[in-house]
UniProtKB/TrEMBL annotation:
Family: Belongs to the EPSP synthase family.
Pfam families attached to this UniProt entry: EPSP_synthase
Pathway assigned in UniProt: Metabolic intermediate biosynthesis; chorismate biosynthesis; chorismate from D-erythrose 4-phosphate and phosphoenolpyruvate: step 6/7
Source species of the chain: Virgibacillus indicus
UniProt cross-references to HAMAP family, sorted A to Z: EPSP_synth
The protein's Enzyme Commission number: 2.5.1.19
Protein name per UniProt: 3-phosphoshikimate 1-carboxyvinyltransferase
Amino acid sequence: MGEMKLQATQNPLKGEIEVPGDKSISHRAVIFGSLAKGTTKVTHFLDGEDCMRTVNAFKKMGVSIEKQGLTLTINGNGIEALTEPIEPLYFGNSGTTARLMLGLLSGLPLFTTIYGDPSLSKRPMDRVGIPLSIMGASFDGREGGSLLPLSIRGKTLNGINYTLPVKSAQVKSAILLAGLHADGETKVTENTPTRNHTENMLKAFGADLTTDGHTITVTNKNTLSAADVYVPGDISSAAFFLAAAAIIPGSKLTLKNVGLNETRTGIIDVLRAMNADIQIHNEQSGGGELFGDITIAHRKLRSTTIEGEIIPSLIDEIPIIALIATQAEGTTIIRDAEELKVKETDRIAAAADLLSTLGASVEPTDDGMIIHGKTDLTGGKVASYNDHRIAMSAVIASLIAKDEVLLDDVSSIAISYPGFFDDLAEIKSK
Ligand code: S3P
C-alpha cells in the first residue's frame, strides 16, 4: 500500500460495525491451544500480521493449525510434543510473540533462535530475560542478550517469586508461561494491574493458577486441556472509531461485541470523564472475558488528567486519546506512561509529532503529553513511524483536518487491523 493521500471530509460517521478480534487474546488462544492436549477451536480470531507470527511459530514446532476464515482449529498434543524448529523463528513486529515465546521456549528441551523486524530488534527483551535467567534460563543475543536476535538453549527451570519492575502484561505472561513447566511454584506480583488475559485463559484451559490480590501463582501440576475460545472485538481497534465518533459532529456509531475486560477499558472511563456520550449494552461473558456493544455519539468534549493505575488499561490507546484531547476544551495531561517509549516506536514522540504537524498544541514530556485544546487541525505531511496505531491515528485525524493529509505509509495497519479501511468506508457511507 505505502503512501496515502487522505482527504478531509468532516462527514458524520454512522452505523454499526464489528471490529476484529482482540490481538492479545488471539495470541494467547494460539499459544494455549498449541500447548493443550486436544482440539481447540478459536473463533473471531484476529488474522493480522502479529498473530499470524504466533501461528507460524507453532506450526514450525510441529503443531497442526488450520485456518478457515477467522476460525482456527488447533490440534495440540501437549507441551512435550513441541519439536525443535529447523530454522529461526521470525516474529516480525510482534512484541507479544517475542516476549511470550521467550518465556515458553526457555523451559523446553529445544534450541531455538528468534528474530524480528527492525522495530522489534530495538525493543528491550531483558525485562523478560532477567527474571527468566533467575529461573535458570540460558540464552544469548545482541547487547548481552537484551536485544533480538536471541538464541535459546531451553532447560528445566525453577519457580520464582518475582515482583514486576515494569507495568507489563507481556513480562507477567512470559514468567507465567515459564512457570507452567518449571519446578515448584512461580509467583508474579504486579504493583499496578495489567491486562489479565493470560490468567483468564490459563484457568479456562485447566492450569493450576490462582490469583490472590496482585499476586498470581502457577505450578506445573496440571496439563492444559483444549478449550474453545471466542475472541471478542479488540477495544484497542474499536478505540479509533470511538475517537472518530467522539470528535466528528453528528456522528453516532455502535461497535458490536467489543471486549470489556476491565483491565482494558480505560479509554471508556477517559471518554466519560471527557463528557463523551457513550453507552454499553448487551454485556455477555465467555472464557473469563466480558464483551458487549458500545454506542457512542458526538458531544462537546472537555479536558481531563490521565495518570496512575488507569495507564496500563489504555496504554495502546494513548496516541488516539491524544487526538481526542486536541478536540476537547482545556488542557489534558497524560502522565505515568513512560512505557510508551518502548512500544513499536516511541509513541510519545510519534504522537506529538503527528498532532503538532497537523497544528495541534502538544508538548511531549518524559512520561506522557500535555495537550492544549481545542485546536482545529490543518493538513500536512505526516509520518507513521511504521507503527500501526500511529498510522490509524493519522487516518482518523485526517477526517477532521481542514486540508489534505499525506501519510507516508499505511502498510503497518495490517499488523492489528487488516480491514480498517473497509470498516471506515462502511461507516462513512451511511
Ligand atoms: C500486550 C501487552 C502490552 C500492550 C501490547 C499487548 C499483551 O504490552 O502494549 O500491545 O498482549 O500482553 P506491555 O506488556 O509491554 O505493556
